[in-house]
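haha ok so turns out i had the wrong file open the whole time. this is the CORRECT one, sorry everyone. sequence first:
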Amino acid sequence: MGGDVRELCATVGAILALGSAMLGTATAGEVEDAITAAMQDVDRGRCDQAYRRLAGVDGLESRAWLLAGQCRIRQGLYPEALADLDRVRGAGDLDREQVGDVELYRAVALYHLERYTEAAAALDSAVGLTGEEAQLALYRGLIALRSGDNDRAAPSLEAAARLAPAMTEPVASYYAGLAWQGASERTKAREAFQRVIALDGDGPWGREARKLLDSNKLYPYYVNGRVGMEYDDNVLLRGGVTQFAPGLSRPLELHTEGEKDWRGVWEIDGGVELWREDDWSAGVTAGYSGNAHFDLGDFNIHYPTIGAYVAHRFDSATTGQVRYQFGHAWIDQDPFMQTHIAEVGLQHTWEKAGVSVFVADVLWDDMRYQPMDIQDGPGTPGLGPCSPDPTLPCGPPGLSEAKERDRDGLGLGTAVEHRYLVPLRGLADEALESLEVGGGYRFRYFDSEGEEWEHIAHVLTAAIVFEFPMDFSLATRASYEYRDFEHASTFPDKEVINEQYVLDKDDREEHEVRLEAEIEKGLTNNLSVSARWSYLENESNRRVYDYTRHIVGGYLNFRFD
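then structure:
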């Protein structure tokens, strides 16, 4: 992609030969000899010597700097190449085409130095001057592709492949395929990738193109999943209640923590695009997750889902999607919950600032079990007896716990998330292949049938993903959620057997902190293994909701798309 320097030398030689009469003391033979020797130096990577050979000929110094700059680009010495080319910008002893060549190859150097705005300006300056139209089209296409303008990138890259295939292929067709893919032109993307495979076969470009060709099938799909083993120190996800019994000097701590257990876990989700027309597409999705505990089999979960989506590409950088998902969960073999989720999302890729996602959603939870009611007390807290079962505590008379603890309800939410791929420099570039940071905010309002669960929530998230050499990665995530409930809880902090317990009158309030880290090692293009740790702390002014949870696990992950 640095250009065909031999072709440049031949071009310079022809120009010099035709103009040898104007070079003063230099004869045509001397010019030809200098050109031939300079070309040999370039082939051997001796850029300084190539410069000195031409610079020693009267009237060829600016042309010598141009050749040296192109030679250094061929060697990957982009800062040095840019310095050489900057010396002769607009030089008076260069003809019109050579002035354009200087700007073109300045753009090449600037592109590889990741100074894309300056590279684009240099390419604009080269238009109409340089004779290397293929190189010009190639780099204009690459810059447009990087900025997310697939509609402009694809034709430029196709032109580069057509104008000078010996110079630009298979690179031009590979990136043209990516641009057509991003522009939702699947047929053209497949044609471009097929050209790469025909040209490069089992080479690096051909292998990558074959992978992308497989992903551009008539009905593109994805299937992701994992199977593994986890240890959970709070399976029931609950805090504690202090219970007193007559005649005992010390209280009993009931349910101080949810049960601990090992479990097998599995999850799979997939989707397939069934229809595409211009910038519109639609498809279906499905998923299933579950677990099997070693000891707490009564709490095994099974949760299948099914859904559909419609997507629209507004422009090369912006895509919108509407989706719906239905899910039904069982605990052990008993129905537990049905969920309905409707979501509208918008994703925008900024030219230099990463990717932003905006979401608004509606959630309906339909619990498939009836909460347990508590027997009524005599009406005075701290007194008994409790009837009909004096071996249990009792609650305030007239309070229907089954009704107030009903979690059926409607949730309304909106969220914004941003991800940014951090440019790497120096040692960081050697130690890391990529570094992505992200963060977001979510607002949620949940209106439940029972007053126990009605609340407003604010959620802040942050994430960092490290990609290391040898297919290692580390993903970290942290979140903080504040839940402000509309009512006091119907759960007591303290119970006394055969007495009516006291309920706190303060509205329920919770602060939740989550920390997660997962290290992953790729095994093949489709398989990886990973180890995960997560920590949850829910700080609540009601003891039953005040708990912590640790999960550690190991997984085999798969992905096909």
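The chain is about 30% helix and 40% strand.
again sry for the mixup
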